[in-house]
Amino acid sequence: MPRRAALPLALAAALALAAFTAAARQVAVPTGTAAPAPQSITNLPRIDVRAYDWRRYVAAKLKHQMAEVAGTKITVTKKTTVIHLDLQPAVIGNNLQQLLARAPGVLVSQQPTPTQFNLSYRGLGNPQESEYVLVMQDGIPLESDWIGFPTLYAMPLAQSLSEVQLIRGGSSLLYGPEPAPVINLVTQRPQPGTPFSASTEQVVGNHGLYSTYNVLEGSHGAWTFRADAAYVRSDGTRPNAQSQMRQGDLYLEYRPGDKNVWWLDLHAIAADSGDAGRLSYPQWQSDPRATPTPWNRDWVDRDQLVLGHTSEFGDGWRLTGKLWFAYQDLASRAANGALAPQLPPASTTLQDEQFRTQGLDLRVRKAWGHGNAFTAGTVLFHGNDPFRQWSSPDLYVDRFDRSGTPRLRQARSSDYASVFAENVFRLPHEIHIVPSVRLERERVAVDETVRPPFLSRPLIHEADARTVPLFGLGIGNDFGHGNETYFNVSQGWRPLRYFDMASPFANIVPGHAPDPSKSLSWEAGVHGVPLTGLYYDASVFWIDFKNRIEAQHINATDVIEVNTGDTRSRGFEGELDYDFLAPTALAARGEHLEAFASVSLLAARFTASTIPGQVGKVPAYAPRYLAKAGLTWRVEQRVKLSLTAVSAAAQYWQDSDQSFGSGATYLPARISAYTVVDVAGDWQLNPHVKLLAGISNLADRRYYDRVWQTGLEPAYGRSWYTGVQLKL
C-alpha cells in the first residue's frame, strides 16, 4: 500500500486503540461486586508513525524555484529559477550583473548606458539588445515589438521588483516565441490590508551617480495601491557617456470579494544617454576613455498600461486576463567618427522608431482529481511600428527636429495570435507527466516610401506570414524527502523580424524572406532540498537550433537574408545553495549565512552551414563556462551583506571565429576571460532608517565583453555607491 494511503489508517488505528484503552480504564466496578479476575496482557507489535511534512519541503523549494502550478501556468517539469530580491542587498542603477548573479547560465554583456540591455543564454544568438531572450514584466513583453523587433531598450529599476523568474526550455509553450528562456520581472505589489507607508531612497556614488527612489503604498477597504517615482543620473566613464533615467509606476487593485481581483498597472520609463562610440582594440589599449563620437545620443521613452482580472469560479476553475497597451519611442542621433580630431563629419542621421503595441492574454486553469491541473488560453498581439530617418548638417540636432532631409520612411506592422493548452497528470509513485501544445500565427509587413540614397533596390513592399505548431512533453518524479527529477523536451522558434524580411540598409532582392529559426530543447535533471538549508539543481541539456538567419551577398552590391546553418548547444548546468545557520537556533531568530554557486558548462558548435568552413566552429557569445558564486549574511530586519562573483571563459564575438580589421581598426577574434567581484550591503539602523553601500568590480578589472564590427565597448571599472533609505 502506498505510504500516503497507509499513514491515515495507521493514525486512525493508533487513535482508536488509545481511545478504547482510556475508556476501559474509566469503567467503574459496582459496589459489593467482586473484582474481576486479572486478565492476561497481550503486547501488540509496536507501530512507528512518521509523518512526511511535505509542506515544509515545498516551502523550502519555493525559495529557489517557481510553484508547480503558478496561478494559470504549469511549470512542473520545466527548469525554473526564482531570485527573491528582498533576500539580498539593494541593486542600484540596474546593475544587471548583480541582479542576475543568482541566475545560472545567463550571460550579461556589459554596456554602461541605461538605453540598451544585452543578455544571451547557452550560445543561442548574439546578445545585442537581448534579441534571443524573451524578457517580460509581469508576463507582458518588454521588447520594443515582441514579434517584429524583439529588442530590449527599457528595463524597470530593480528597486521596483520583488523577484526575477527564469524559465528554460518550455518557456515558448508558456509565453510565446524565442528559443532561449523567458526572464519574467515581477513587480512589487502590496498585500491587501497593508498600512499606509512612504519611503525615500537617496544614493550617491562615483562618476557623478545620483539615484533616488520614492514610494507611497497602502490599502483601504477593498482598494490597494502603490506608486513610485525614481530618477537616476550618471556622468559615465568617458566623455559623452552621461545618462539619466526617469521611472514612474502606479498599481491600483480592487477586490470586491475573496474570489475576484481587478487591477491596473501603469509603467513609464524615460531614458537618454550620450553615445561615446565604440573603440578598436588598439584604441582601447592606449586610451579606454577615448570618445570617437562626442555628438551622438540615444533616447528611449516607454509607457505601458495593463488592465487585469482574476476570478475563482469554484470547482477548481480560475481565470486570468490581461489587456495591455504600450508605446515606445526609440530615437538616436548618430554620425560616423571623425577622420581626425580637427575634421568632424559633415552630417548626422536622426532616427526615430515608434512602437504602438497592444495585446490580450487570456488563460484558464481547472484543478481536477488529486493534484491534476489543466490550463488553456490565447494571446493576441498587434504592433504598428513606423521607422523614419533624416539627414542633418547639425551634429547636435534636437531629437524632435524634422527639418532635415528625409532619408528613410517605412510603415511596419506585426500581428500575432496563439492558442495553447497543457495538463499535468499525477500518477502513482509520485510521477507527473505534462504534455503541452501551442499553435502560433505570425504576420509581418513593411511598406517603404523613402529609401536611403546610397541604395539602388526598389522600394520595399513585403508581407510574410507563418503558422508554427509547437509541442512539448515533461516528465518528473518526486522521491525521498524534497527531491524531484525532471525531464522536458520542447519546441521553440524565433519569429521573422522586420530586418530579416526586408533590411532597410541593404540592396535586398525582394521575395527572399527566409524561414523562421526553430529550436528543439532537451533537458534532464534533478533538484531538491534533502537537508535543512540545502538546495541543489543539476541538469544536462541539448539544444538544436535550426535555420539561423544571416545576410549573404549574392553579388558585389546586393544581399539577401537567408537561412545559413544550424547550431547545437549541449552541456551541464548546476546550482548549489546552502544556509549554514538554517539547522541552528540562530535561524529561528532570523539570522542566515548563505553560500551559493552555479556553473554552466557549454559546448556549442555549428552542425550545418551554407558558408564553406563554418561547420564545427563555435557560435558567438558561447563561453565554455560561466560561473557565478556568492556569500550572503542576512539578519532579518537588520543586515544584508553580500559578496558575489561572476567569471566567464573566453568567447568569440562573431560566428566566423576570426579577427576583424587590421592596424588601427583591429579587433581580436576572442573576448578574453574575465572575473568580476561585487560587494553590497544594507544596514537597518531602526524601523525608519536604512544605510546602503556597495562596490562593483572590486578588483577594478579592466575588460570588455561587448563587441560589434564597429568596435568594442569598455565595461565599467571599479565603482561605488552609498546612500540612505528613510521610511515613515
TrEMBL record:
Keyword Transferase: no
Domain annotation TonB-dependent receptor-like beta-barrel: ranges: 277-698
Location(s), subcellular: Cell outer membrane
InterPro entries (UniProt xref): Beta-barrel_TonB, Beta-barrel_TonB_sf, Plug_dom, Plug_dom_sf, TonB-dep_rcpt-like
4Fe-4S recorded as keyword: no
Residue ranges of domain TonB-dependent receptor plug in the record: 77-177
Source lineage: Bacteria, Pseudomonadati, Pseudomonadota, Gammaproteobacteria, Lysobacterales
PROSITE patterns: TONB_DEPENDENT_REC_3 (PS52016)
Protein name (record): TonB-dependent receptor family protein
Signal peptide range in chain numbering: 1-24
Sequence similarity: Belongs to the TonB-dependent receptor family.
Database matches in Pfam families: Plug, TonB_dep_Rec_b-barrel
Membrane topology type: Multi-pass membrane protein
Keywords carried by this UniProt record: Cell outer membrane, Ion transport, Iron, Iron transport, Membrane, Receptor, Signal, TonB box, Transmembrane, Transmembrane beta strand, Transport
